[in-house]
Design goal:
Elements lengths: L8 H59 L6 H5 L4 E7 L2 E6 L6
Antiparallel strand pairs: 1-2
């Protein structure tokens, strides 16, 4: 019989583990980069929406001043960050415009 040569099982397992870890690190770095990009995009969109909301508030306030809040379509008022629904009781409600000091 010949000599039995032991196969380096532990060394192979360690190399495989290192390879998997390196791939996981690369994958995570890519994912983190994607998340950074998405967060930046989200922050930009929020800033843009804030500007749009302020512009909308100015427009809707002009309309309310001319027509009255009670004559302003409720749907329009739902887009304003300066409009509040006030419950009057028994299913009755009114829309209230919040001044800057109230917000």
């Amino acid at each position: 019989m010949g000599d039995v040569v032991e196969f380096p099982v532990e060394e192979v397992k360690l190399k495989q583990l290192e390879s998997e870890i390196k791939k996981a690190v690369t994958d995570l770095e890519f994912k983190y980069s994607e998340l950074d990009t998405i967060h930046e995009m989200l922050n930009n969109r929020e800033a843009e929406a804030n500007i749009m909301e302020n512009d909308f508030n100015a427009l809707i306030k002009q309309y309310i001043d001319k027509e009255g809040i009670e004559n302003t379509p409720a749907l329009w008022l739902t887009y304003s960050s300066k409009c509040m629904v006030k419950c009057e009781g028994d299913g009755e409600y009114s829309m209230v415009w919040l001044e800057d000091k109230d917000v």
